[in-house]
Amino acid sequence: MDNDISLAKSSPLVRSIKKAYKSGQEDEALDPIIMADPTGQPLGRLENGDYVIFYDIRGEREVELSECLVNRDFSHFPVNKDLHLNFVTMIEYDSSLKARVAFPPEGKIKNTLAEVLSKAGLGLLKISESEKEIHVGFFMNGKSNEVFPGEERIVVPSPEAVSSYALKPEMSASQVAEKVSLKLNDPPYRVIVANLANVDVLGHIEDKAAVLKAVEEVDRQLGKIIEDCRTQAVTLVVTSDHGTVEEWLYPDGTVNTGHTKNPVPFVLADFSAEAPERWNLKKGGELADVAPTLLALLELAKPPEMSGESLILNFPDEEKAERRVLLLILDGWGMREEKEANLIAEARTPNFDRLLARFPHALLKASGEAVGMPANTVGNSEAGHLHLGAGRRILLDRVRIDRAIQEGSFFRNDAFLWAMQGAKKEHKSLHLLGIVSKYSSHGTIKHLFPLLRLAKELDVKPVFIHSLIGRRGEKPESGAAYVAKVEEMCRSLSVGQVVTVMGRFWALDREENWDRVEKAYRALVYGEGVHVS
Predict the structure, then answer these.
(1) pTM for the model
(2) What's the distance, Cα to Cα, between the start and end of the chain in Å?
C-alpha cells in the first residue's frame, strides 16, 4: 500500500485525501472530493447522454444511487429531470431499474427453504432489524423479492437518531428478541428465522469498547430467547452467516474491520425433546447444510436442488409432536480457537458459552468456495444468507465475472460494448463508477482495470472514474492507496482520469437515508464537494 501511495505523491487528489485524513475524516464517510480545472469548474460530471458503467457486484446498496440517476419519476429529493444517462450495471441491482445488465441472473434459484416450507403449507416468519432486512428476505430467498404464501416478515427499525452505531451498540436487538418471544406463542408459525445484527454492524467500526458491548448485548438477548424456547418447547438452532470480530487485528497489529475466513457455530437445542443433549451432529459442515438440517427436523423431504446435507447423525427414539423451529442467526459471530485479539472470547458471553457446553454443536465453513466465492476469501452477509436459505453451493457473481475476465468473454460483453461504442460514436463521456478496493463484497479494482483496458482498446475518450472508498476489511487510510493505484493504471494505459472520490457511506445506502444519497448525487452531477485543481 505504501508503495502505491509513493507512486502518486505528486497527485493533487491523493494529497487532498491525505489532508482529509489529517483533519479527522476516514475512508468510509470521506466527504466528496472533486477534480476541477484551473478556473474551478468541476471536471467529468455526469451530463445528458453520457454513458455510465456502475461496476459494483452486490446491488442492495447500489440500487438507491442508481434509481436517482436513471428513474425519471424519482421523487425523494430534487434531481435534474432533463438528465438522461445510458446506464449499465455489472449485475442486476433491481429488475425494474432502467439499465442494461452486463451479467444478468443465470436463472431462478428454485426450492429455497422458504419455498419448500410454503409448498408444505408451513407458516414461516422472518424477524430482523432493518439493517438486515434484505439479507433474511431477498438473499435468503435466493436473491428474490418474492414473498411466498405463508411467509411473513417483521422488520424492526434500526436506530436512526445516532450518527454512528458505536453510540448505540445495542441497536434494536432487544426489540427483535421481544418480537421473537411474542411470536413463539403464535402456533401458526412452524418456523421462525431471526437475525441479531449487532456483531457484524459494529464490527465494521473501529471501536473496541462498542464491539464488546455489541457482543454482550447479543448474548444477553440470546439468553432471553433460550428461555423462551425452553418454555415453549421450541427447537432452537443457533448459527451465523460469517465471522468478524473474533479476529480483530491483522498480524501487524492494525484493526481488521472486515469479515473473516473462520467457521461459524451451529448449535442444536431441541427443547421439545426430553433429553436435547442426546442428539448427535456431524462435527463439521458448511452453511449450505443448515436448510437440509431444518427440513430434517421438520420431517420434510429435501428437494433435489439442495446439495447440502443434514448435520444430524441420529434422531432420539422418543415420540414427539410436530416440532416448531427457531433459526437464530447471530450475524457476524465467528469461531476461532485463539484468544488473542478475539473479541468474542474477550466479551462476557455466559449464555452462548452454556449453550455450546451443553448442546450438540458443529463448526460450519462460511467463506471461500463453501459459499460460492473464490478460494481463501472471507465470507459476507450476502453469501452467508444466500447459502443458509438455498441449501446448496451457488457461484456468486464475482466468480462468474472473474472467469469471464480470464477466458476473455468479459471483453466481448454486449453491455460493455454498447456503452463504450455508444460513447465513442456519439462523442459522449464514459463514466466508470464503483468501489475501489482489492477485495470488497461490493466490487474490486480487478473489475475496473479490465474496463479501462477495454476502453483503451476501443479508443474511448474521455473516460472519467468516480471512486467510492470505505474501510471494511481494509487497513487505515487505504482509500488513498487505492486511488493512487487507479491513477497509476490510468497513466500506464493513457486512458481515464479519477475525477471523484467519496466515502461509500454517502453512495451505498440501503435504508432510504436519502440525505446521504443526495450528497453523492450532487457530487456526481453538480460537482459539489471539495474541489482540487
Answers:
(1) 0.81
(2) 25
